[in-house]
């Protein structure tokens, strides 16, 4: 996934980050930081369409506070996980979601 565009603020004396972690997004290993939400990592990797509706329409982060449910992704095989409300952890497996998934 790592591409030329990464939407993170450059570090300086006024910005600190948590420890580096690694997550997998759609099979690609990418860097994140402790304290970031899944949505933050996805947006930093320039991934704006996090799921599609049952009709195939793309959806992404809209409200950013867990109200709208547009940012649903699959996290560690658990579908319908709100990316904006889920803290990223080292080794987490994240994938975009197609349509509405039944919970396991």
Written overview of the protein:
This protein is mainly beta. It has a single domain, classed as 2Fe-2S iron-sulphur cluster binding domain, sarcosine oxidase, alpha subunit, N-terminal domain (Ubiquitin-like (UB roll), Roll), CATH 3.10.20. The chain is built from 1 helix and 7 strands; from the N terminus they run E-E-H-E-E-E-E-E. The chain has one helix at residues 38-44; strands at residues 20-25, 28-33, 51-52, 58-59, 72-75, 78-82, 93-98. Strands 1, 2, 3, 4, 5, 6 and 7 form a 7-stranded mixed beta sheet that branches. A hairpin with a 2-residue loop joins strand 5 (72-75) and strand 6 (78-82). The chain is globular, with a radius of gyration of 14 Å.
Question: What's the helix and strand layout?
Answer:
Blueprint lengths: L19 E6 L2 E6 L4 H7 L6 E2 L5 E2 L12 E4 L2 E5 L10 E6 L6
Parallel strand pairs: 1-7, 3-7
Antiparallel strand pairs: 1-2, 3-4, 5-6, 5-7
